[in-house]
Amino acid sequence: MKLASPAAVTALALAFGLAGSLPAAAGPAPLERAREAAEDTPFEGVLQVRWRDGAETRSERLTVAAASGALVVRGANQVMARPASVRLVSHRGGGWEELWRPSLTPAPRPDGSKYVTTEPVDGPRVAGRTSRVVELHHKGRLLERLYLDKETGLLLQRDQFDVSRTVVRSLAFESLKVGDPGAPLADPPATANHAPKAVAAERLGRSAVAPGTLGDGYERMGVYRDGSVVHVLYSDGVYDLSVFQQPGRLRRSDVPPSGERVVVGSATGWRYPWPGGQLVVWSSGGKVFTAVSDAPADQVLAAARSMPPTPTRELSLLGKVRRACEALMAPLR
Amino acid sequence: MSRKFGTGGFGASDGHLGDALSALLDGELPPNQETAARAHIAGCPTCSHELLAVTQARSWVRALPPVEPPFGLYERMLLERPQRISAVFDTRASIRRRAGVAAFGAAAAAVTVLGVASPSQPPVSPAVPRMVEAHATGASVGADLLSKLAPVGVPVSFGR
């Protein structure tokens, strides 16, 4: 009997989702190689972003170009990454706004050792390029399948799965040209500074809560303030999670009606998908919290639920009127 | 028989809802307490009547027109000469009367500020698109740029 070729065995393993049983290693080393490749390799291409929004799957096409450590994404919004952590955004053809600058560089990421990655195996061609496939698992569950360019290590496609192993979010090159893109990426003209300010977690006082760790291994990397909004950035080494806090309360009428109702601690919240992941909005103790992340939905909820309870509860309207009237009448007794 | 409410420190000690009624109307009760409160009201005439009264009182307070200062008050305060002010307060009786009026005015202002003008934290609508961008740009530092930044090329919308 003729034995199957190694390539056919690999293809079968992928087709039946058995790649997770191949030899595995701790930590997301393939993602680190993809990061280095995106910074070192000049390329340009068309990238398709797909994400599940309720029962519907939505998609958008973006053009991407990279050279000399800079990267530009062009869609309805434009995003630019420049060396030394400078990040700029332009909305619908408007001027460039600087949203991140070198002085805000967060603490180093955790090593992502809670995840297990499979050994790379030969994969299908993506955008005309030969790929190697790696899977990312957590507690025995397939979270992601990464298709990396065999020649450069560049990320060609990234699929994120839900618990039923259905793709809920995907980035995939439709076309890709590796090599010098020709004209250098233009420096943006004058930019408006909309970057937040870095603050020490110890100096937040009662204005916000910023625990050093959140559920499922998320570690705090930085704390920032933009006006009355405090932004705490966390990472588990693969996914990142931001918790935004601002004074106020949340009314159902102030959030889009399409959200899925969830429970966060003793509060009601709403969960929404965005092209890059999930976000959860809830209100507690006189503050409104918004958690934004590229992590799977269950991890985002677990992290949100691990936020410590806010200490004070505001008096209701009747309570405040009573308190004020008592204060007014006290001198007359 | 109605179910007792308030084990979480909200309701009054007599087994009725008390302040929790106002919190219920403001939508500030957690889901489980809201359900319990509504179940209690359904079987408790006292709380049912108080709920009606609180609802009516809230509508009266919110229907009050804003109080405008008399025309020219600020201009007169700024332009009044010191000697004219001292002439007004030229007797002890006048000083006591004016002090009483000032104290009452300060107390009324305190009631307005503490009790009515800021009944609770103001409602806010989070600037989600800006937060998504702040998250993605911050998270992209030291990470795979394509994975973290590309989604920001698509404007955030939730089909409102």
Automatic annotation (TrEMBL), chain A:
Region annotated Disordered, chain positions: 100-124
Keywords of this entry: Signal
Residues spanning the signal sequence: 1-26
Entries under InterPro entries matching the protein: MucB/RseB_N (IPR033434)
Domain MucB/RseB N-terminal intervals: 56-181
Protein name: MucB/RseB N-terminal domain-containing protein
Organism classification: Bacteria, Bacillati, Actinomycetota, Acidimicrobiia, Acidimicrobiales
